[in-house]
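Quiz preparation item.
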């Protein structure tokens, strides 16, 4: 099995829709750090699991300098964003979404869900 990992920082804004009062319901921004993990049993015709630049391009196109509520149809929590990113990148099996220094969420397609 081959593995690659790419970390990207994006500037984004969102607001959460919660069933309790929270300052996160207000528009606010993050310089989020997204770490993408991909794997494949075989390398592609170029000898890669996936080109690192394709991962970066996908993340930037999805999130960078965006008001995420206008991009997605779900509540843009860190957990939901991690899953959405994972599903948007070929061969991705895990995403760690670091909203801030102390707020980190992860999504993994299998039991490797550790942060």
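Solution:
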């Amino acid at each position: 099995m081959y593995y690659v990992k790419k970390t990207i920082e994006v500037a984004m804004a969102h607001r959460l829709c919660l069933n309790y009062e929270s300052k996160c319901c207000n528009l606010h921004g993050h310089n989020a750090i997204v770490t993408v993990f991909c794997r494949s049993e075989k390398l592609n015709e170029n000898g890669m699991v996936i080109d690192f630049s394709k991962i970066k391009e996908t993340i930037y196109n999805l999130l960078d300098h965006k008001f995420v509520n206008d991009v997605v149809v779900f509540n843009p929590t860190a957990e939901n964003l991690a899953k959405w990113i994972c599903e948007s990148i070929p061969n991705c099996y895990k995403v760690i979404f670091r909203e801030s220094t102390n707020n980190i969420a992860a999504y993994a397609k299998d039991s490797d869900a550790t942060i």
